[in-house]
Amino acid sequence: MTSTQPTSAATAVPATAGGGPRRRLAISVGGVAVLLAALDAYVVVGVLTDIMDSLHIADTRLERVTPVVTGFLLGYVAGMPLLGSLSDRFGRRALLVASLLGFGLGSALTAASGAVLTAASGGEIWLLTGGRTLQGIAGGALLPVTVALVSDLWPDRDRHLVLGNIGAAQELGSVLGPLYGVAVAALLGSWRGIFWLNLPLVAVAIILVWRAVPGGPPTATAPRRTDIVGGLLLAVVLGAVVVALYNPDPERSVLPAWGWPVLAGAGAVTVLFVLWERRARTRLLDLTGAAKGPFFAALTASWCAGVALMVTLVDVELVAQTLLGKGGVQATLVLTRFLVALPVGAVLGGLLLRSGRLSERIVTVGGLLLAALAYVLVAGWPTDVLAARYAGVLPRLDTDLALAGLGLGLVIAPLSAAALRATPPPQHGVASSAVVVARTMGMLIGVAALTAWGLHRFHSLTAHLDFPLVFGKPADEQKRLLTAYTHALQAALRTEYREIFLITAAVCLLGAVAAMFLGSPRRLGSEAERS
Questions:
Q1: 3-state SS, residue 466
Q2: What's the rounded Cα separation, in Å, for the pair 347 and 229?
Q3: 483 and 365 share a domain?
Q4: Average pLDDT value over all residues in the chain
């Protein structure tokens, strides 16, 4: 694929030895921008109660502030495909600068919410949600454009380690986000300080991007037109699916009252999207010249990894709180075993690919099989898991969570590399964004479906349980009845979590099967040439 590149493209992409320091600076700036967006994806988790207090929302009305969390992810997913395509047309620098400006504007709106509108109006929630959504839309471009920038600046054989580092920066945001938010809020005296701090950081990033990242389209060929209509239709579909799966009261039903109508609307818009893409001269995802089988295999494996990732983030912390008796901060510390291993696995995956001994297919299959094994082990956690040891030495809880994080981290670099290798250079922005969109949709859809099913399962397991009436009974009898009731609830919770983690293991196995079709590097190149 690279042999057909025009000679003049080399002047637009400083991939020569002389351009080494500049390209390292360019990708470092892109990595920092990715980290900044990733931090803000999770930053509100640690300060959510502070936000509720400042907006005069009662602790019992958590659903009122939930859109603040989901707004960022919705914008992140919906805007990514179109923005990745725009970077192929207008160049990486232009999109990075525009995205950073949008991210800064969204940060300012988020920080100003509540200070601009009165609490009685209720409008501060929507200003806050709008600011977070704008942050998500702008942040959604930073990762795929930076990944595509790697393909511009590094030859095919040398880009794996760089992709692993970019993936590690993305995953590091999930590790540091909540802690970063709490620390900055404490230092600056308010949760709004988190978002005001983004403004000088964005300004510095824009200056560095302008100096380090090459301008203009990534190749010397004429830039193709962008499918604005297709991008907007796809954004509507993705947004509608997310809204339909958001259920503030999953105990009563799997979907909310508006769920099925919104999903039906998403289906109708999907049909319009397919019809448009078949007739349009310029398509959002033009797979001409691409190895379609390996490309869609990468998307499927990425979706499965996203399901496992988000289920872990949600359910491990719930296990720590409900079964292990941990408080909020302590439960987060339990999860750090997984979160620390995730970026380690991302870097390791890049190193394994760079060695040249292992292909993207082998590393991805191995990572997902390792993750599947880890979730089977987690599903089998005993009651005294905190005291359990492997061979009397390795703490079981720590080991199992680290294996899960390591396995999911391993697949980040090879899936991005396989998607880029399976598509021609003009499509790299769209290809990289498609991989991230698939994983993020897996995160949203997977956790929504499994959480709704898990709550339903818990209620079915406890439907026969009634709180014991202990008034007027001897103290020993009261204690016995309450203990039996507590043990029954704990058993129901263990059954629920065990089944959720077994399903997660099955999803990882499905991803491993899909990864078998990634193909070898040589095969991908020949298949693309035949297309």
A1: coil
A2: 37
A3: yes
A4: 78
Q: What are phi and psi of 394, to 5 degrees?
A: -80, 125
Helix-helix angle 20-42:66-90, to 10 degrees:
160
Query: Could you give the CA distance from residue 52 to residue 507 in angstroms, rounded to a whole number?
Result: 36
Cβ neighbour number for residue 182 with a 10 Å cutoff? 19
State how far the alpha carbon of 12 is from the alpha carbons of 97, 152, 153, 220, 445, in Å.
Answer: 18, 9, 10, 7, 40
Q: Which amino acid is it at 221?
A: T
164 vs 3, higher pLDDT: 164
**Are 247 and 253 spatial neighbours (Cβ–Cβ below 8 Å)?**
yes
- The residue with tokens 């492997």 is 390
216 and 237 belong to one structural domain: no
In this structure, are 314 and 419 located in the same domain? yes
Cα 469 to Cα 461, 463, 478, 491: the distances in Å are 20, 17, 8, 21
DSSP state of 282: S
176: phi then psi, degrees, rounded to nearest 5: -95, -20
Write the CB contacts of 356 (distance below 8 Å, at least 6 apart in sequence): 157
Rounded Cα gap, residues 292 and 88, in angstroms: 19
Q: Which two tokens stand for residue 260?
A: 């099925």
Inside any domain, residue 12: no
- For residue range 402-442, list pLDDT tens digits in order: 999 999 999 988 998 898 888 887 777 667 767 877 887 78
Residue 407 is assigned to a structural domain of this protein: yes
Residues 484-495: tens digit of each pLDDT: 777 777 788 888
Query: Looking at the 3D structure of the chain, how many domains does it have?
Result: 3
Which residue, among 313, 386, 91, 335, has the nearest Cα to 213 in the 3D structure? 91
Which phi and psi angles does 426 have, rounded to 5°?
A: -60, -15
Nearest residue to 100 (alpha-carbon basis) of 232, 235, 199, 216: 199
CB-CB contact of 462 with 492 (8 Å): yes
pLDDT of 319 above 70: yes
Q: Does residue 199 sit in the same domain as residue 63?
A: yes
DSSP label at 389? E
- Rg of the chain on CA atoms, in Å: 24
Tens digits of per-residue pLDDT, 260-317? 899 999 999 999 988 988 887 777 677 777 888 999 999 999 999 989 988 887 788 7
User: How is residue 23 written in tokens?
Assistant: 């390209």
Q: Kindly tell me if the per-residue pLDDT of 151 is higher than 70.
A: yes
Residue 10 placed within a domain: no
Residue carrying the six token digits 């602790």: 59
Q: Output the domain CATH number for residue 55.
A: 1.20.1250.20
375-381 average pLDDT score: 95
Does pLDDT of 202 surpass 70?
Answer: yes
Range of the domain at 107: 19-222
390, β-bridge pairs: 394
**Within a 10 A sphere around the Cβ of 402, how many other Cβ atoms?**
20
